[in-house]
Amino acid sequence: MSSRSGAHLVTDALVRAGVKTVFSLSGNQIMPIYDACIDAGIRIVHVRHEAAAVHMADAWAQLTGQIGVALLTAAPGLTNGLSPLFSARSAESPVLLLSGDSPLAADGMGAFQELAQTDITAPLVKASLRPRRAAELQSDVCAAITVALSGRPGPVHVALPFDLLQQAVPEDQIIQGNAPARKTVKPAQADVTAIAQQLAQAARPLILAGPMHNESRAASRLKALREALGVPVVPMESPRGLRDPMLGAFASVLAQADLVLLVGKPLDFTLDFGRAPTWNAETPVLVVDPEQHLLDRARNLLGTRLTVSVRADADAMLDALTTAAAGGLGQRGREWGATVDAALAMRTLKPGSVKSGDGQAGAALPTEICAAVQKVLDTSADPILICDGGEFGQWAQAFCHAPTRLINGVSGAIGGGLCYAVAASLARPEATIVALMGDGTVGFHFTEFETAIRENARFMAVVGNDSRWNAEHVIQMREYGPERLIGCSLSPSVRYDLAVAGFGAHGAYVKAPADLGLALEQAGQARRAACINIELNGQAAPAYDVAVAAPGAH
Fold this sequence. Notes:
- By secondary structure, the protein is α/β, with parallel strands linked by helices.
- It has 3 domains: about 5-175, Thiamin diphosphate (ThDP)-binding fold, Pyr/PP domains (Rossmann fold), CATH 3.40.50.970; about 190-345, Rossmann fold; about 355-535, 3-Layer(aba) Sandwich (Rossmann fold), CATH 3.40.50.970.
- Helices cover about 35% and strands about 15% of the residues.
- The strands form 4 sheets. A 6-stranded parallel β-sheet has the order 3-2-4-5-7-6, sandwiched between helices. A 6-stranded parallel β-sheet has the order 15-14-16-17-19-18, with helices on both faces.
- Helix 15 crosses helix 16 (about 390-400).
- It is globular.
């Protein structure tokens, strides 16, 4: 009777999930899976740091809607990949982290790189497991993928003991399990009807959604919902919450709402915990979420203001509301919608908020860089915008836009932008990809330029170089004063453009904003990964000319 190795059972599960690409950094304990990937026809994108593999899997999941897969080796390989798990969880990205592990038979014996991996990853993922039988490897991995895709999507972790990967399993003993697929918890029709009626009766209703329903990942669903209900729908995915510069002056209209529906949007710091005066203390709040603990949290924070609490998946509820809509809100609703739209579009900067003396003489302002980049995005057939970093990243989010956008997400973790760009190019090879990031951010995974060249990933990384960690610089200036600045400076002599040339990428150095347009054009013509290092007049994040001070990180 024929048999299959445990490693082949793992790749069988990946094939059943439609996986054709995994992101990985090699190591002893995962060599059996590398070998099995050859037979499965699975591409291994080999990266330069384990964290990069997880970041790329995160971006792949967001861009394709498929499970993103990162394959790491044991112990130090796994621990190197932990930080991006936090980002993926916050971004609601379905990611499967597979890690090599010491042999099951050697547990407690002091085996090479023995580590209680699942104990470490458990707080960062939806599920963390270590299979106990080789025959169940395919079933276990399929089940893990289903968990990642279901409910609020997020990362899962499977630690793979080395001896199970090597073990031969007779065909008749293999437990295949169910094919990976998203499982949906639909709301009761009575709940849908009640919510739809309350939305129709409200004068100024709002629907707030979470990251899985941002404009890039759920554009068609949001469009259908808005057309059916006539209610403003605002996705939120930034750690700055209501201070997200992309939301314009939205914070100034939130308190005007007379009904707020949270659909898959946790009530947390990004919404000032539902407190007045950010919110109207009399406004009823409806909450729909797949996770009971978040429904419980909302009840604890809101008390009697929480009038409806429904445990259901966000996508199922939004689709049900679209179907149940009774013609929208009419003229009254259109006026309210116009008010919200105007607030979201507001980009008038507060007088004096841009400091002309904050950078090198002649260095580009963030708005000048964004304007040049937007011209590229506007003239591209399939543009993808990536925003990463602190203050400069906020300007990019506010003043650049594209149908597809990736940001560093609610976690607030920076540094994944280059990795996102690599994954974006591999997922959509013909796309025009522009990644804007600061000089601090680009340093996290700079060697992934080598990965990009080797894998033929094409993108333009625009590095706003103000020679400092500007987010922290801004905090120190505000809280402690200029005489107590410490630990935020970076070398002004670093030439990131020359460094990428050593990897084979295209590099350009821009000192004046007027030269950026040509540099972008030449970078696009290079048809390979490119880095445009532009001198930046560093600024605090955009401050708009509105009376309401919005809460949020920083």
